[in-house]
Each structure stands twice: as C-alpha cells, then as structure tokens.
Amino acid sequence: MLLQAENLHHSFTEGETENKVLQGVCLKIIRGETTAVVGPSGCGKSTLLYLLGLLDRPKKGEIYFHGTEVAKSDDKVRTNLRNNSIGFIFQFHFLLKELTALENVSLPMRKSGLTRMDSHEKSLDILKKLGLESKSDRYANKLSGGEQQRVAIARAIANSPSLILADEPTGNLDSRNSENVFSLLQNIARDQDIGVLVVTHNPELAKNCDQIIEIQDGKNK
C-alpha cells in the first residue's frame, strides 16, 4: 500500500455559502499500478488530487502515505514529501518556455541540491528513455503538444518519486498522443514501481487502468 485516503471531506466558502466538494471519499493506491479517477465535471476530482498531493488540507479525514498519516503533518514535512516523493503532471504542462526541455527537467533536481552537471546528465538519460533525446536542447515552446507533455512527465519523475498525480494529462492532446502518453504512464508505473493516479474524462483510457475510482457529487459512486 502506497497511499490511502479515508473519509475525505472538503469544502469552499463563498460569502455565507459553504460549497461541499468532497463528502467522505475513500481510496487506495498501490505501487506499480495505475488508478483512474473519473466522474462528471465539478464532482471534486481535481480537489481530491490537490489533497492527495498535499497542496491543501482536508476539512476532515485522513491521508496515509507509506503508512504515515500526513494530512495533519506540519508544512515542512508536507513540503519535503512533495519535493521528493510526489510528481505532478497537469493538463497545461507548466513548462518554462524560456528554458530548454533539458533545463525544464533539471529544475526539480537542482532544487533538491544536485549540481548542474549531474542534473543535466540525469535529465538527458530520462529524456532519452522517453524518446526525446534529440529534442533536449529545444525550447519548450518549440515542442509539439505531445512532446511538451512527455517533457512534463520527465520532470515529474526526475526525483524518482513513489507517487505520480496527473490531472487530465491528455486533455489537450489528440487521440494518438493521448494513447501514447497514457501508455507511457502505465509503463512508468510498472517498470519503476511507482503508483500513478490519473484524473481523466476519457473512459477508454480509464478502463485500461488497474483500478477505476468513480466520484459523483463528492462521494465514491
């Protein structure tokens, strides 16, 4: 067991109105497996991802990471886990366009203290494995959508995380690139023993995952 969430509740307050987004969601993520979270827009999928990624705290409930409860951990512990154990992939890449593919992938490693030379060497090795070695010196905004998303995946696995959280990672890609990116995430999960959780609206991709979690009205369906 890599990650387990129990009875997660979360809400947002707008004026005097409390908007309940999550109302008791539970899930388990296993290393080496890919899990899909599916459900209609506004059901709380992205909110769930942010809670599991320790970017926000639930109003109620527990999150266990490697068996340790982390929802109530202090900011230092949560930041350390995000930097070293969790990789994030988003629909809009968030690559720095003024940096090359190699430099974008190197950023998390430089932040963790690796030297420029060592981080570039490791980044080049990762890009090579993802079929992007020839694009390593190309600026991010000169890459195709599929290439940018693969660079985003390379950046997410740069610090050898045990968990990858992906929010609609194929949302802006055509069907061919969507399948390629999704297959790549599945291979990474299996080959590197990483737990991968993917929020997706694509039922065809979701059904190929090891596990599907359906959310409706902020609850497990």
What would you say this structure looks like, in words?
This protein folds into 2 domains: 143 residues, Rossmann fold, CATH 3.40.50.300; 55 residues, no CATH class. Helices cover 35% and strands 28% of the residues. It is built from 7 helices and 10 strands. A 6-stranded mixed β-sheet has the order 6-7-8-3-9-10, with helices on both faces. The protein has a 4-stranded antiparallel β-sheet with strand order 2-1-4-5, with helices on one face. Strand 1 and strand 2 form a beta hairpin.
Name the structural class.
Answer: alpha/beta
Number of distinct beta strands? 10
| Number of spatially distinct domains | 2
The radius of gyration computed from the alpha-carbon positions, rounded to a whole number of angstroms, is 17 Å
Termini, distance in Å?
A: 22 Å
Helix content: 25-40%
The CATH class of the largest domain, by name, is Alpha Beta
Spans with pLDDT under 50 lasting ≥5 residues? none
Number of helices: 7
Short description:
The chain has 221 residues and is α/β, with parallel strands linked by helices. The chain folds into 2 domains: 3-85 and 161-220, 3-Layer(aba) Sandwich (Rossmann fold); 101-155, no CATH class.
Features:
single chain; Rossmann fold; 2 domains; six-stranded mixed beta sheet; 35% helix
What topology does this entry show?
Elements: E1 3-14, E2 17-29, E3 34-38, H1 45-52, E4 60-65, E5 68-69, H2 75-84, E6 86-90, H3 101-111, H4 116-129, H5 145-156, E7 163-167, H6 175-192, E8 195-199, H7 203-206, E9 211-216, E10 219-220
Parallel strand pairs: 3-8, 3-9, 6-7, 7-8
Antiparallel strand pairs: 1-2, 1-4, 4-5, 9-10
Helix pairs in contact: 3-4, 3-5, 5-6
